[in-house]
Amino acid sequence: MELLTFLGTASAIPDIQHQNSHLLIQSGKSTVLVDCPGNPIVRIMEAGTNPNEISDLVLTHFHPDHVSGLPLLLMDLWLLGRKQELTIYGLQYTLERAKSLLGLFNWLAWKDMYPVHFVEVPETDFFPLIEREDLNLFSSPGKHLIPVIGLRFEFPKSGKKIVYTSDGEPCPAIQELAMNVDILIHEAAGEGFGHSSATQCGQVAQVCKVNELYLIHYPTQKSVKKMIADATRNYSGKVFVAEDLNRILFA
After folding, report:
1. What is the CATH number of the domain that holds 232?
2. Domain with 216 in it
3. Considering the entire predicted model, what is its pTM?
């Protein structure tokens, strides 16, 4: 199975139907959680996945709407009896602060705590985070208010390729990462302050020659029709506004 699930799709302010943006990628034995806001274990279970199946966690950057649920996730997995290692990826800037956050809860003293392995990601274009038979994952640095990475997932079985920009305004490194992918998942919080508008998302999708564009990390009060109209001004492909618990099955 090669499956993408949108666990949350809102920008910084969620609502009843939309949690903060985070994704679940499943392929073979790999189950990758991308970002960790709020109480992610609830959405993971709503998606029909056993939280203990999570093999990897990628933190794209250290803003509250992307990392606030980290201590609770680790505690919940511990209380659920997890034994296997969890690998957490992030930039140095991100991991240093994530460890400090966890340290407030004295997590290393939790009895029989499962192993957690931190992998520091360099700010390098097309850096290989994961290279497995069932999944390949690459990262490139984006352009945001703080250090951030965009992600490119490649599924060996179906041959599909998807890119998640995370937060940021258009930049050459992320555009190169997204070139010719099947699906581009682009944040649409609005132009300025290190973010992108739906119009800019469409421009990037056209330049990168992607097959489909999914808008994510958008203000939930915005009109879906308006966002799609803005994105299609400069993009001739299919445009979707992602909703919580939407799924895309590749194989």
Report:
1. 3.60.15.10
2. 2-249
3. 0.97
